[in-house]
Amino acid sequence: MSWNADELEFLCAWAREEKAHNPYSLPAHQLQAAHRAKGVTLIRAIKAWARSEGRKDEEIFSLYANPRPRWPWSSPTELATRLDSLEGVKS
């Protein structure tokens, strides 16, 4: 399985927000909170993406420019299943 554009767009925005003074006031972090996803799950997803693509984690910052991505997973179960299937990421 490979990463889809919606997943990467979200992870890109979320990673950029992590550098902000108060990231939880920003759109991707608001979605994370609304869906009760753990930050460590998203960090592991970014690391799995980097490994699978042979890239550095930091390259995620420049993949997409959309500051307001949509939440790419339909349920917590889908998120966990997708991340487990993509490089064995545990949620």
Which terms summarize this structure?
single chain; mainly alpha; 52% helix
Can you describe what's shown?
- With 91 residues, the protein is mainly alpha-helical.
- The chain has one domain (5-85).
- Helices cover 52% and strands 0% of the residues.
- It has helices at 5-18, 27-34, 39-53, 76-85.
- The radius of gyration is 12 Å and the shape is globular.
What is the number of beta strands? 0
Into which percentage range does the β-strand content fall?
Answer: under 5%
Instruction: Give the number of domains.
Output: 1
Mean pLDDT over the residues = 90
Characterize the overall form: globular
Q: How many helices? A: 4
Q: Which secondary-structure class do the elements indicate?
A: mainly alpha
End-to-end separation in angstroms reads: 17 Å
Relative helix content: 40-55%
How many whole angstroms does the radius of gyration measure?
Answer: 12 Å
Report the sheet with the most strands, covering strand number, pairing sense and barrel closure. none
Question: What's the layout of helices and strands?
Answer:
Layout: H1 5-18, H2 27-34, H3 39-53, H4 76-85
Summarize the structure.
The protein has 91 residues and is mainly α. It is 52% helix and 0% strand.
